[in-house]
Amino acid sequence: MSGTPLVVLAGGGTGGHLFPLLAVAGALRSAVGDVRFVLFGTGRAIDRSVVAGSGLELVAQSVRPLHITKPWTFPGFLAAWIRACRTCRVRLEADRPAIVLGSGGFASGPPVFEARRAGIPTALINPDAIPGRANRFLASRVDVVFAQWEESASCFPGHPGFKVTGCPIRAEFQRATRETGIARFGLDNRRRTLLITGASQGARTINDAVVAILDDLAAVGAWQVLHITGSADLDGVRRAYAARNVPGTVLAFTEHMPDALAAADLVLSRAGASSLAEITAVGRPAILMPYPHHRDRHQDANAAVLVGRGAAIIVTDTRNCQETAASLRRELLHLLRDRPALTRMAEAARSLGRPDAAGAIAAELVGLSRGMLTTNTPAS
Fold first, then answer.
1. Measured between alpha carbons, how far is 279 from 269 in angstroms, rounded to an integer?
2. pLDDT tens digits, one per residue of 34-89
3. At the topology level of CATH, where does 172-352 sit?
4. Fold of 6-169+355-368
């Protein structure tokens, strides 16, 4: 045990659960200075990759998702939950943290649950418009729920600690410039840039729909494409771009999403909560294709927030490539030629963005920590 205060971060398995926690950790380091962090995450490779070099200790839990539609998996889920809770309980007793902050998802459950039982202050980031199963379970067990949008308030009726702060994003999103993004990805500074991304794992249906309209993209002057495909589709998408001579860069993945968004004039994306927080923080217009396979369709609800404010339009992923491509062709080609519309959408996106969300949450955590975390004070 160390005299340096400890903050436990809880969540993992996807970039959407990990990056907000790292953003808050960075803001706490700036506000508090001397603080330790432990991340209770998962054994997935993305957890190790994201945490590497961050200065956080990673504890890979045995917990696994709960699949309501697969009752035969319940015993395995329960056994993993019990093991994870035991691991968290022992660790929290041996090294009591100032606070435990969860980011949603199954990996948040045991650390937040056990912290509440131990009387440790707890908080939860809820970035989606509609909370997932884990956040619905944990909401009554935390002191504060930090929401990205006011639209989530109805999902936490009467919660005394509900606060709209935005979804925390890394400070790099505010420091990146168009010039650095253009240079990093080898793009042409004279052209406008369409960024296409399916998030960290890629999105095959987005890739397929874009490939189906590449002839149309090739015919549009003054634009280039930065397309992040995911590793599975990289080779095929690259061949398609080369065959049609579409200018731009095709990558499987990038660790430099701040530069990618800074270079973009229009974004085609899924509607994950963290992605939308990044898009609005830098003020970029967007065409959103919400992931169609979630039972609660929460990405549709996320996208609806931006559409309602005039910051984005939706193209429905119908799971039929030709139907989706036809809708995408119509909306995308119109926007690529309508600069005033792009300007209006960018302004609307910027009005929704909360680039200071990580700092706002860090300040709330300091107040919630019962004096265990104190902010730096300038020397007089």
1. 10
2. 999 999 999 998 899 889 988 899 999 988 888 878 888 889 889 999 999 999 99
3. Rossmann fold (3.40.50)
4. Rossmann fold (3.40.50)
**Are the folds of 6-169+355-368 and 172-352 the same?**
yes
Residue 31 near residue 363, CB atoms below 8 Å:
yes
Q: Assign residue 321 a region: left if phi > 0, alpha if psi is -120 to 50, beta otherwise?
A: alpha
Can you tell me whether residue 78 is helix, strand or coil?
Answer: helix
Contact 222, 339 (CB under 8 A): no
State CA 151 to chain mean position distance: 18
Helix (H, G, I), strand (E, B) or coil at 376: coil
Residue-level length of the chain = 380
Euclidean distance between CA atoms 223 and 263, whole angstroms: 12
Specify whether the CB–CB gap between 11 and 105 falls below 8 A: yes
pLDDT over 70 (residue 378): no
Judged against a pLDDT cut of 80, whether residue 103 lies above it is answered with yes
Reference 130, options 154, 163, 159, 106; nearest CA is 154
Half-sphere exposure of 12 (CA within 13 A, CB side): 27
Computed on alpha carbons and rounded to an integer, the radius of gyration of the chain in Å comes to 21
Going from N- to C-terminal start, the domains of the chain cover 6-169+355-368, 172-352
Rounded CA separation 290/300 (Å): 5
